[in-house]
C-alpha cells in the first residue's frame, strides 16, 4: 500500500517544460478569448446591432 508523502519532502518538477506550461496555457486562453471577441465583432458588423443583440438574447434563452 502506498504511503503518503510527508509535506517536508516537496516534489519538484525540474523538467525543461515545467516553467513553460503556465505561459502556454495563458497564451492559449488569451488566443481563444481573442477569437471569441473577433467573432462577436464580425457578427456585429455583418448583421448590425439589432440582429446581433437578438441573436445573443435567443442564444441565452436557448441555454437557460
Number of strands: 0
- Helical coverage, percent range: 55-70%
Largest sheet: none
- Calculate the terminal CA-CA distance, rounded to whole Å: 47 Å
Number of helical regions: 1
Order of helices and strands: H
Tell me what portion of residues adopts beta-strand conformation: under 5%
Task: Indicate the structural class.
Answer: mainly alpha
Average pLDDT number? 81
Which runs of at least 5 residues are low in confidence (pLDDT < 50)? none
Rg result: 22 Å
The shape is elongated
Question: How would you describe the overall organization of this protein?
Answer:
The protein is mainly alpha-helical and 64 residues long. Helix content is 67%, strand content 0%. The chain is elongated. It starts with 20 loop residues before the first helix and ends with a helix. The model has no long low-confidence stretch (mean pLDDT 81).
Secondary-structure topology with pairs:
Layout lengths: L20 H43 L1
Short account of what is shown:
The protein is an all-alpha fold. It has one helix spanning 21-63.
Q: What are the defining features of this structure?
A:
single chain; 64 residues; mainly alpha; 1 helix; 0% strand; elongated
Amino acid at each position: 500500500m502506498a504511503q503518503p508523502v510527508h509535506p517536508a519532502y516537496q516534489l519538484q518538477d525540474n523538467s525543461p517544460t515545467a516553467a513553460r506550461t503556465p505561459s502556454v496555457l495563458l497564451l492559449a486562453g488569451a488566443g481563444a478569448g481573442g477569437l471569441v471577441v473577433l467573432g462577436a465583432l464580425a457578427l456585429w458588423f455583418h448583421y448590425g446591432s439589432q440582429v446581433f443583440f437578438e441573436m445573443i438574447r435567443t442564444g441565452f434563452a436557448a441555454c437557460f
